Amino acid sequence: MTCFNDSIVEKTRRTVSKYRMIAPGERIAVAVSGGKDSLSLLKVLAELYLPRRNQVVAISVDEGVAGYRDEALQYARALADELGIEQVVVSYKELFGFSLDEALDWKEERTVSSCSFCGVFRRRAIDEAAVGVKASVVATAHNLDDYVQTFMMNLMHGDVARLGWLDPTYFDDSFPVRRVKPFMEIYEEEVALYAYQNGVPFQSVSCPYMHEGLRSEVRDYLNMMEANHPGIKNVLLRSGLDVISHYARASDKDSVPCSSCGKPSSNGLCNVCKMKAEIREHVNIQRSPRSAGGG
Ligand code: SF4
């Protein structure tokens, strides 16, 4: 173990402690996509919770993208096995009755981007998996760069109501799983270096639906600003946290149960059920015994 590795583990421990992300003895579901960030997070949390590894469980989502997710799931499985950590995989097909490939077959008819569309189901799948393994907290691998990029993008989209989702310990009162981001104070390049030093594999295939658009422009801009003004991303993180604290609870206030699935919604029909209804018009969705969104 090098000094650098120790510093990453220690920074993560401090972030978890500072924001009271994880209570003693609490069962933690780590969202592991199989990319370098989430594999690194699994490794760091396994080290932090070394004496009680059964407190940590890896949850992975198979969206159903041919030729893409298989490699990442293999990496996730291999690392979970190596660390002696339980791994659970849930799929869109099993939960919602369709794969992402099937749902996006009619994509030119939709108005939202593939990732925004996919993200709605991904969040629900992760929540369902976390509840299934009796975890009360989900840890995701968003790093400092992801965090400030998302903050900026929400502002640029005029989507201030969603700023609350960036709260370090975001939860919705009507759903019993908090979301925490133990890497939120660690730069992307530090996570990449940790992954490299620890032999964490880098996925060779990108999702064919990935379209970064505005995010890659925001990333380039922030990298340029950081090069010219070292520390500016960190200042933006602090400013963001201050702003976000005003939205974190406000965003929950009007939450009402979805009339179709009972999960939280802002207007009586949650986004998952809304999108499933839209997909139904185009795709022959299988009825699933584990349907996680209104049958
Ligand atoms: Fe879904 Fe976008 Fe990730 Fe592909 S890149 S799996 S579409 S969120």
Description:
The protein has helices at residues 3-18, 36-48, 69-83, 92-96, 100-103, 114-132, 144-156, 188-197, 214-228, 232-245, 271-280; strands at 28-31, 56-62, 86-91, 137-139, 169-170, 178-180, 256-257, 264-265. By secondary structure, the chain is an alpha/beta fold. Iron/sulfur cluster (SF4) binds at residues 63, 114-115, 118-119, 207, 209-210.
Concise summary:
With 295 residues, the chain is of the alpha/beta class.
- Chemical compounds bound to the protein: iron/sulfur cluster
Q: What is the mean predicted local confidence, pLDDT? A: 87
* Sequence stretches where pLDDT stays below 50 over 5 or more residues: none
How would you sum up the global shape? globular
Got a strand count? Answer: 8
Task: Give the proportion of residues in helices.
Answer: 40-55%
Order of helices and strands: HEHEHEHHHEHEEHHHEEH
Order of strands in the sheet with most strands: 3-2-1-4-6-5
Strand content bin = 5-15%
Q: Main β-sheet, in a few words? A: 6 strands, mixed
- Helix/strand-derived category reads alpha/beta
Determine the number of helices (DSSP H or I, runs of at least 4 residues): 11
Distance between the termini: 49 Å
State Rg.
Answer: 19 Å
